[in-house]
Amino acid sequence: MATDKAYKVLALQKGISNKKAKDLIDRGLVFVEDKKVKIARADIHTETFFRVEYPEDIEILYQDSDIIAINKPAQVDSYDIQDAIDGAELLHRLDRDTSGVLLLGKNRAFIDRAIREFKARRVEKHYVAWIEGVLYEKVEINEPIFTVKKGKAFSLVDPVRGKKAHTIVKPEELQGKKSKVHIEITTGRTHQIRVHLAHIGYPIVGDEQYGSRTQSKRILLHSAKMKILDYEFNAKEPKDIAKYK
């Protein structure tokens, strides 16, 4: 029986590009019977039947002919949401661990219009997070961020190479030596909130990549509200955000 690379067989079977097929395997969404396909370049029989599993129980906050707003669960990739909704395209992304409002466009004209709003910084983005340390007063952070994109993305404050980044943090609640904060960002750099909070000594709970020493099932960051054009969307806080353990 003939064999070929798993991603090539998947691409042919599903009528998608090799790149798309490899990405689906790398993200752990492809199965043969009950076994996950883990190696995209592994040799496999060309008659193998693949099953692609997209996230289930996606909560739709709102949709019309132009836009769809999702309450993204934590530990689900933004691209998995996009793949699960026919004809929709991400207008922005949330980190895998981040829950909350995620927006997708449903037609090219609206997508282009929305992207212009993001680039012009006319989109309001509000988050809630639990951070390490006790924050008593509002903090405004204007520190340039530079992102290293080789391998796993990593960002840092860099006055020379960085791009403008603006974050506003307001305390909401204290729980021992942890603080619940409201965050608004007017720019959208990679890992901006995580980097800025770590930079001022208040890493987000569970964010080991940026210095958190507190174990958590995920990074405790939630996209609570977004406003774009004439739309406003709100996502209810999940249990781990609403009340710290």
UniProtKB/TrEMBL annotation:
Gene Ontology MF terms in the entry: pseudouridine synthase activity; pseudouridylate synthase activity; RNA binding
Region forming the signal peptide: none
GO biological process assignments: enzyme-directed rRNA pseudouridine synthesis
Enzyme class: lyase
Keyword Isomerase tagged: yes
EC number(s) recorded for this UniProt protein: 4.2.1.70
Segments forming domain Pseudouridine synthase RsuA/RluA-like: 89-199
Keywords of the record: Isomerase, Lyase
Family indicated by similarity: Belongs to the pseudouridine synthase RluA family.
Alphabetized PANTHER family for the sequence: MITOCHONDRIAL RNA PSEUDOURIDINE SYNTHASE, RIBOSOMAL LARGE SUBUNIT PSEUDOURIDINE SYNTHASE D
Protein name as it appears in the record: FIG000124: Ribosomal large subunit pseudouridine synthase D
Protein source organism: hydrothermal vent metagenome
